[in-house]
Amino acid sequence: MNKPCELCPRRCGAMRGEGETGFCRAGNAPRIFRWGPHFGEEPPLVNAGGSGAIFFSRCTMRCCYCQNSPWSWRGEGEDVSIERLREMMRVLAEDKKCANWNMVSPTPYLPFIREAAHPLLREGIRLPFVFNTSGYERRETLEEYAEFADVALCDLRYSQNETAIAASAAPGYVEAGRDTMKWFANRLGDGLALDANGLAARGVICRILVLPGHADEAIENLAWIATEISSNVHVSVMSQYTPAFRAKEIAPWNRTVSEDEYNEVAEAAADFGFANGWVQGFDSNHADAALLGENMSPGEGAVGERTENLP
């Protein structure tokens, strides 16, 4: 990268091509922690070959409760060449027969993803791109790299900026996250288009992770989606919060979500008219997911399951 980095809302201006790093600490090559078929995403993203996940290291947020802190905070992973990234994508598509290319936290590496992907696309090798994001995005970046968002898998985590700063060091998250959701919905539609095999080809899935002591913010975000976008949006209401990393020492993040908190959010999703999507089971390690409506078929696999590196 030979220009100041302004990919995320922080617009830090780091000259990564000259060795500088900004808030996320991403360097001048794609760094990847894990890649391979992944079976833990929402059912329309997973076929028999799994979702073709590439977990990028580093992150534009620093969540105190991050379960992925070894690579999101500490940057564990391997710097790879553009050619190696391209080969990963080729293997996921041709050898593993994955349902999609699932780019997990791709924002710091979007220029490299484009460079890796374009030769494959010219060869006619193509899967739907899943833009798997925390929601902390910059509209100008989304527009520049829109070709890598066939399906948006987008968190909407907070409705109060004070919480976003305290928990994730993410100033302006509410405005950025909601603008990101609007941009995805305007571009991709408020529904989820499925192919002949029932797999997502285009559209938006919004993940609502219920956080301890902040169920009201999840409900406020559901109300905002229903009012400002549409209750047709597929929402994935998630109960899987577990105190991890620094959250173990910080209240209220040092406890799990109560069943009452979670039920309050799940009931709100129904009250606001959401008929598409999933509500995770509260217990059983969250491996079950009830449908909000009857438009989708249930699948197996708990959101958040890990996959292994491929050789």
CATH class: Alpha Beta
Helix content: 25-40%
Strand content: 15-25%
What is the β-strand count? Answer: 11
- Rg over CA atoms, rounded to whole Å, is 18 Å
Order of helices and strands: EEHEHEHEHEHHEEHEHEE
**Through-space gap between termini:** 28 Å
Give the helix/strand class: alpha/beta
Instruction: Estimate nothing, just give the exact number of structural domains.
Output: 1
Given the structure, what is the number of helices?
A: 8
CATH fourth-tier homologous superfamily: Aldolase class I
Rounded mean pLDDT score: 91
Known CATH architecture: Alpha-Beta Barrel
* Low-pLDDT runs: 284-288, 294-311
Note the main sheet: 11 strands, mixed
Q: What does the overall shape look like? A: globular
CATH topology: TIM Barrel
Provide a short characterization of the protein structure.
This protein is of the alpha/beta class and 311 residues long. Helix content is 29%, strand content 18%.
Describe how the helices and strands are arranged:
Layout: E1 31-38, E2 51-56, H1 69-72, E3 78-79, H2 82-95, E4 101-104, H3 110-123, E5 129-133, H4 139-144, E6 151-155, H5 161-168, H6 173-188, E7 192-194, E8 200-209, H7 215-229, E9 234-238, H8 259-271, E10 277-280, E11 289-291
Helix pairs in contact: 2-3, 7-8
